[in-house]
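Let us practice reading a record.
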Amino acid sequence: MYVALDKIKTHLNIDKDFVEDDNYLMSLSEVAECVVERHIGYKFSKLMEDNDGQLPMPIQHAMLLFIGTMYANRESVTFGSANVLPHAYDYILQLFENYDVWC
């Protein structure tokens, strides 16, 4: 797991003593890892080689944003008005996209 569970809980304002969703949060983190790797076209291992063994903080933050979205919106339909925040998930990941990769 590239983003620690306690960091996810802090981002989501979840009390560290609340453990009922821990497995679910860890599965969301795994999904976020796969999605972000595919989105930018780089394996995290390559990014870590270029960043002294650490996943760049913008990538970690994009993962937290994506995990938060999946945690708060567990279905594909919402009731109410939603607005996309500028300079969020997509903007952050555009900085790391590998345009040489063909899917």
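A brief commentary: The first helix runs from residue 5 to 11.
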